[in-house]
Design a protein that fits this description.
Strand order of the largest sheet: 2-1-3-12-11-4-5-10-8-9
Helix content: 25-40%
CATH superfamily of the largest domain: Isopropylmalate Dehydrogenase
Structural class: alpha/beta
Strand content: 15-25%
CATH topology of the largest domain: Isopropylmalate Dehydrogenase
Radius of gyration: 20 Å
Shape: globular
Largest sheet: 10 strands, mixed
CATH architecture of the largest domain: 3-Layer(aba) Sandwich
Distance between the termini: 21 Å
Number of strands: 14
Low-confidence stretches: none
Bound molecules: adenosine-5'-triphosphate, magnesium ion
Order of helices and strands: EHEHHEHEHEEEHEHEHEHEEHHEEH
Number of domains: 2
Length: 355
């Protein structure tokens, strides 16, 4: 099986962390009998410099043909002065829209060896394994809005939240399908006691649940969920929610791990999936070879799992990361006395060795 992977290193630490992840992906693919062909393309600030646009036509054409996309990060202070229509971040929004990526998956795992980095007590976070599934194409981020203006003598502005049954069904089905490969539990999060869109969400979630009798679905209000995530996060397996609630809850859940450099994400639609670490381009440490490549390497694991159904390969990458951490290897962001400090490249090689 020959698969086309588009790499978009982007800006800042992007090229350093993508190089580490590419090596891991190549080895994991070979072990699982998949052959990858890589193509590298520009987006973000690098593309603005070269083509005066954050998302060049050549990159768009390549991602449309691709089987999966691995992205580093885009943006940085060099592009703070460019006009709003061509900001580097527009590249991500453009890719999401172009590829119809309606689901954003953020797994948050806390192995025992890194539990002490969290600001929460180790007994609360050790063994946490939550997957947040956020709806990415609808809701209040795309609803009708009115910018601030004078209405009856007072300045006003508004945004609207709207969800259709098909939008809710497809994200709930995806959540149930991924739960089947995990612990068969889905928590659907809404605010159905107040919002009409949430009442449709809850009703539809309950109906979709009947298609998956091996998956248990609970409903939770978003305010309670926000509290439960830091109070007893181990109760959760898959959490599925709207665009706005998912944005907030996934950042909150990321805090459980104690480091932004560790977390991967997958954005899925009907075409190729897009995989990237949750952090930005970290311009403050770019070019120094000290960035943590683990978020990107774990994104490569998600790529194997969700784009190619290569569950074994994904698990092997995750195990290689955990092994390397358990052996005491850390990049600078997670270094503590008594452990071994590695550069980005050395950490990548260590994980490769353990794969
Ligand atoms: P964006 O707007 O693109 O999300 P940001 O301003 O939120 O960017 P990041 O680029 O994510 O910020 O960086 C936030 C902090 O975390 C910085 O101090 C950065 O150095 C650090 N950081 C981010 N990613 C990593 C990483 N992979 N390894 C080490 N440190 C990182
Ligand atoms: Mg950020």
């Amino acid at each position: 099986m020959n698969k086309q992977i588009v790499l978009i290193p982007g800006d800042g630490i992007g090229p350093e962390i993508i190089a580490a992840a590419q090596a891991v992906l190549t080895k994991a693919a070979a072990k699982s009998g998949i052959q990858f062909t890589f193509e590298t393309h520009l987006a973000g600030g690098a593309a603005i410099d070269a083509y005066d646009t954050p998302l060049p036509g050549k990159t768009l054409a390549a991602v449309r043909r691709a089987d999966a996309i691995l992205l580093g990060a885009v943006g940085g202070p060099q592009w703070d002065q460019v006009s709003p229509e061509i900001r580097p971040e527009k590249a991500i929004l453009g890719l999401r829209k172009e590829l119809g990526l309606y689901a954003n998956l953020r797994p948050v795992r806390v192995p025992a060896v890194t539990a002490n980095y969290s600001t929460l007590k180790p007994e609360i976070v050790t063994g946490v394994d939550v997957l947040i599934v956020r709806e990415l194409n609808g809701g209040i981020y795309y609803g009708e809005r009115m910018e601030a203006g004078m209405v009856e003598g007072r300045e006003q502005a508004w945004d609207t939240e709207s969800y259709s049954r098909p939008e809710i069904e497809r994200i709930l089905r995806l959540a149930c399908q991924v739960a089947r490969k995990r612990r068969n539990k889905v928590t659907s999060v809404d605010k159905a006691n107040v919002l009409a869109s949430s009442r449709l969400w809850r009703k539809t979630a309950g109906q979709v649940a009947q298609e998956y009798d091996d998956v248990r679905i609970d409903h939770m209000y978003v305010d309670n969920c926000a509290m439960q995530l830091v109070l007893s996060p181990k109760q959760f397996d898959v959490v599925v929610t709207s665009n706005l609630f998912g944005d907030i809850l996934s950042d909150e859940a990321a805090v459980l791990t104690g480091s932004i450099g560790m977390l991967p994400s997958a954005s899925l639609g009907d075409g190729p999936g897009l995989y990237e670490p949750i952090h930005g381009s970290a311009p403050d440490i770019a070019g120094q070879g000290i960035a943590n490549p683990i978020g990107t390497i774990l994104s490569a694991a998600l790529l194997m799992r969700h784009s190619f159904g290569a569950e074994a390969a994904a698990g092997q990458i995750e195990a290689a990361v955990e092994r390397s951490l358990a052996d005491g290897y850390r990049t600078a962001d997670l270094y503590q006395p008594g452990l071994t400090k590695l550069s980005t490249e050395e950490m990548g090689r260590k994980i490769l060795e353990n794969l």
